[in-house]
């Protein structure tokens, strides 16, 4: 069967998180949904998948509960089950920045549609920032984009403090996979005194769907957080696969290297792999094959 996937988020005030979690868990279980939903007092974020009719029922319910269609909802499809299980979790933040002043429900940057994005980032006076983590930026990014070379989103604050100045960098344009990270980053930048802050509405995924390949300023592929690993223009699924040992995205040539062992290691993590860890991973793989 094919699976319909919804990547969604909205910054909105949410109360009584335990009750909401229970309601969402039951809703998703009743509609054969897999994937992850995160809820916090600042809103909802997640990527879920399931049979088309079931997923549509869940999205309709989320719209009634949280007005999700006033935020971002992005649909795509996969030929195989993209997530192993269902998780509905309560979090302190939807995307961890640890900067209370960064509240997109109060203050947020200017949205830029995919159709207008090329013009914004082609302006030589605009600083173009990729707000994603290092393992994501390795696969692809926009022309002229600066990679902050961060491992976690919380490190973004340090990068801004050490490399950007509101008095010098008056125009900043940011992007991320689906829009949520750069939306929060834009709220943070404005709180730090930056004047003109832009972010790509719907993120890279919306750009890859809406902008013709012959007009693209995107280079490479976009990392996604499901079994597809990465997608290209038109959201076409990549041939890449994740290393189970460390989660890095691997090409066919990466998987032909001697360091690669299916379900155990790759050239990114082999140097830190202990024999005990390798043994545990091999046992896990064997139990899955038997099951």
From TrEMBL:
Reactions catalysed, as given in the entry: uridine(34) in tRNA + AH2 + O2 = 5-hydroxyuridine(34) in tRNA + A + H2O
The entry's keywords: Oxidoreductase, Transferase, tRNA processing
Record-listed E.C. numbers: 1.14.-.-
KW Transferase (keyword) present: yes
Highest rank taxon of the organism: Bacteria
Start and end residues of each Rhodanese domain: 122-216
Gene3D superfamilies found in the cross-reference section: 3.30.70.100, Rhodanese-like domain
One annotated GO molecular function: oxidoreductase activity, acting on paired donors, with incorporation or reduction of molecular oxygen
GO biological process, one term: tRNA modification
Stated role: Catalyzes oxygen-dependent 5-hydroxyuridine (ho5U) modification at position 34 in tRNAs.
Family designation: Belongs to the TrhO family.
NCBIfam families: PRK00142.1-4
Name of the molecule in the record: tRNA uridine(34) hydroxylase
Native species: Aureimonas fodinaquatilis
């Amino acid at each position: 069967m094919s699976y319909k996937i919804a990547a969604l988020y909205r910054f909105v005030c949410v109360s009584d998180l335990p009750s909401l979690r229970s309601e969402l868990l039951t809703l998703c279980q009743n509609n054969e949904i897999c994937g992850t939903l995160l809820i916090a007092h600042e809103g909802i974020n997640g990527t879920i998948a399931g049979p088309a009719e079931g997923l549509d029922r869940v999205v309709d319910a989320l719209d009634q509960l949280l007005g999700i269609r006033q935020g971002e909802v992005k649909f795509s499809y996969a030929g195989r089950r993209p997530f192993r299980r269902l998780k509905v979790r309560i979090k302190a933040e939807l995307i961890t920045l640890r900067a209370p002043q960064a509240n997109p429900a109060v203050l947020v940057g200017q949205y830029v549609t995919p159709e207008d994005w090329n013009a914004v980032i082609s302006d030589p006076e605009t600083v173009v920032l990729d707000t994603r983590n290092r393992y994501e930026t390795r696969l692809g990014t926009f022309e002229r984009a600066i990679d902050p070379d961060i491992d976690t989103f919380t490190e973004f604050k340090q990068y801004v403090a050490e490399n950007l100045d509101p008095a010098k960098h008056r125009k900043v344009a940011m992007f991320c996979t689906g829009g949520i990270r750069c939306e929060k980053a834009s709220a943070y930048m404005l709180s730090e005194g930056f004047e003109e802050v832009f972010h790509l509405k719907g993120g890279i995924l919306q750009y890859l769907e809406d902008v013709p390949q012959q007009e693209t300023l995107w280079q490479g592929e976009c990392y996604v957080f499901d079994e597809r690993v990465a997608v290209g223009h038109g959201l076409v699924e990549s041939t890449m696969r994740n290393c189970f040992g460390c989660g890095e995205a691997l090409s066919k040539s990466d998987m032909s290297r001697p360091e690669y062992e299916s379900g155990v290691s790759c050239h990114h993590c082999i140097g830190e792999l202990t024999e005990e860890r390798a043994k545990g991973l091999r046992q896990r793989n064997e139990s899955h094959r038997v099951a």
